[in-house]
Specification:
CATH superfamily of chain A: Folate-binding superfamily
CATH topology of the largest domain in chain B: FAD/NAD(P)-binding domain
Number of domains of chain A: 1
CATH class of the largest domain in chain B: Alpha Beta
Largest sheet of chain A: 4 strands, antiparallel
Strand order of the largest sheet of chain A: 3-4-5-6
Order of helices and strands of chain A: EEEHEEE
Structural class of chain A: mainly beta
Number of helices of chain A: 1
Helix content of chain A: under 10%
Helix content of chain B: 25-40%
CATH superfamily of the largest domain in chain B: FAD/NAD(P)-binding domain
Largest interface: A-B, 27 and 24 residues
Number of domains of chain B: 2
Distance between the termini of chain B: 45 Å
Number of helices of chain B: 11
Shape of chain A: globular
Strand content of chain B: 25-35%
Distance between the termini of chain A: 22 Å
Strand content of chain A: 25-35%
Oligomer: heterodimer
């Protein structure tokens, strides 16, 4: 069972959390000017790396707040968790 | 290829089975092929088989990182069905089911296809509405589908507990659905493809693609460089990694999916029972083991292991629905990595790289489609243009918006 550190609550069981996929995807600033390719890319196409992955998690059965995590998708090791709005940490993987 | 028959069995029994021919060769890779298939699972081997058999292209190599059928082909719960909601899905899965029905004869290899009937349970009003909608859609597509009352379910599965925490309100039955022997599918396709000249190259990892002027010209492997006029990537669990090597992204995320197998017992369950809303499906193998499919973990992972809470969430409802299984021991449990698309439908597609084709994204339910997927993918590669059945499954549907939104793509609720 994974333990994940919620930036607000501390170490908790993974079952308290929900993952919501890739983090740091910037919402289009000018949606009206986007082409179909750009919309498709924004909504559906994802980085799906084997290794270091930056992703969004929600402490859904706890404080219900969102945060970001840097996790290795092969080992499930969580390198860091950090609050939204914080720049993603550089990780040597 | 020596054909398998009662006579070859008798002939070899005289020699104490010492003289059986190897089922397929183990050749060194040639310098160049007309088509290189990346991935020696069921879908990849089927693609090679139909390329040789129906498209007249036998100068084909299947390149496999490990051993054939050692990936998700060997990890799934062997269920075969075609009871999907949308016309596009009905097209490809029913095409597959029709090929399943004669596959053992076609391959001269017993894939143990057993159309034993497949039940899909409904546990609440929403489930009843879902099977009502889907069942009628399936019938409109000319595919067999029957609505069952709880009493009829009880007749098929006498030990089911209808009045439990997950009451059974009805069910959808596909009588032609069932199971097949997953390993035999890989071995049968490998043997039949090999007999037509396809080179099956195991323990050979693709490390990169040779791409000139945005056109693929070959693959770089752990056993050297291999040129190819066309490349078909048919991998599960790693298609994003391959796409990354080729320089584009796919609308796919990879997650672990678990299954478990019990100790063998005498025959008790003679159909497949799926249950979408409680994330559990169950059948009994010919060896007597209960084969139980669990849900997937909802985070990206290549770890090939899932969480314990997913197993708990699966065996809990199984024990509730089938109290007779409550003291059975589970012998094995495993996780495989599945490539999941947002609409839970697969991707069979041309790619931004010319002459490179991808067949991937089968998510939690690709095994059932193996023959159909390989068949239409082979024709697509041969023609250089997607087969009409494969056409709707292009990766570009995520740009056009023409998604094939299959909630029924697996027994797990989405």
């Amino acid at each position: 069972m994974l333990l994940i550190e919620c930036p607000w609550c501390g170490l908790r069981d993974q079952t308290e959390f929900h993952c919501h996929g890739e983090a740091h995807i910037t919402r289009p600033l000018d949606p009206d000017s986007l082409s179909d390719e750009e919309w498709g890319s924004y909504v559906f196409f994802r980085n799906n790396p084997k290794g270091l992955h930056y992703e969004r998690w929600e402490h859904s059965h706890g404080c219900r707040r969102w945060f970001n995590a840097a996790r290795d998708t092969v080992t499930d090791h969580v390198y860091a968790t950090y609050k939204p709005g914080v720049a993603k940490p550089e990780i040597e993987s | 290829m020596n054909r398998y028959s009662i006579f070859s069995l008798l002939r070899n029994s005289v020699n104490y089975h010492q003289d059986w021919q190897r089922a397929w060769r183990s050749p060194d890779p040639k310098r160049e092929y007309d088509v290189v298939i990346v991935g020696g699972g069921g879908h990849g081997l089927a693609t090679a088989y139909y390329l040789a058999k129906e498209c007249g292209i036998s100068n084909v190599a299947v390149i496999e990182k490990g051993w054939i059928g050692g990936g998700n082909t060997g990890r799934n719960t062997t269920i075969v069905r075609s009871n999907y909601l949308y016309d596009e899905s009905a097209g490809i899965y029913e095409h597959a089911l029709k090929l399943w029905e004669n596959l053992s004869q076609d391959l001269n290899y017993n894939v143990m296809f057993s159309p034993r009937g497949l039940l899909h349970l409904a546990h609440n009003v929403h489930d009843m509405q879902e099977i009502g909608r889907r069942g009628n859609a399936i019938r409109l597509n000319g595919i067999d589908s029957q609505f069952l009352t709880p009493a009829q379910v009880k007749e098929m599965v006498p030990f089911i507990n209808l009045e439990c925490r997950y009451p059974v309100m009805g069910a959808l039955l596909q009588p032609r659905g069932g199971t097949a022997r997953h390993d035999a599918v890989a071995w049968g396709y490998a043997r039949a493809a090999d007999a037509m000249g396809v080179d099956i190259i195991q323990n050979c990892e693709v490390q990169g693609f040779k791409i000139e002027n945005n056109t693929v010209t070959g693959v770089e492997t752990s056993r050297g460089s291999i040129s190819a006029k066309k490349v078909g990537c048919v991998v599960a669990g790693h298609c994003s990694v391959l796409a990354d090597m080729a320089g584009f992204r796919l609308p796919i995320e990879s997650v672990p999916l678990q299954a478990l197998v019990s100790e063998p017992i005498k025959p008790i369950l003679d159909c497949v029972v799926m249950s979408g809303s409680v994330h559990a499906y169950i059948s009994q193998s010919d060896k007597g083991e209960l084969v139980i499919g669990a849900g997937s973990d909802l985070y990206n992972s290549y770890s090939q292991r899932g969480s314990f809470d997913v197993i708990e969430a699966t065996v809990g409802p199984v024990v509730e629905l089938y109290p007779i299984f409550s003291r059975m021991k589970m012998l094995r449990q495993w996780g495989g990595i599945v490539d999941v698309t947002v609409d839970r439908s697969p991707i069979l597609t041309k790619t931004p790289v010319n002459n490179m084709f991808f067949n991937c994204g089968w998510g939690t339910g690709g095994f059932k489609a193996t023959p159909g997927s390989g068949n239409v993918f082979a024709h697509s590669i041969a023609r250089g243009d997607m087969h009409p059945i494969a056409e709707p499954f292009s990766m570009y549907r995520f740009i056009s918006g023409a998604l094939i939104d299959e909630g029924a793509a697996a027994a797990v609720a989405h």
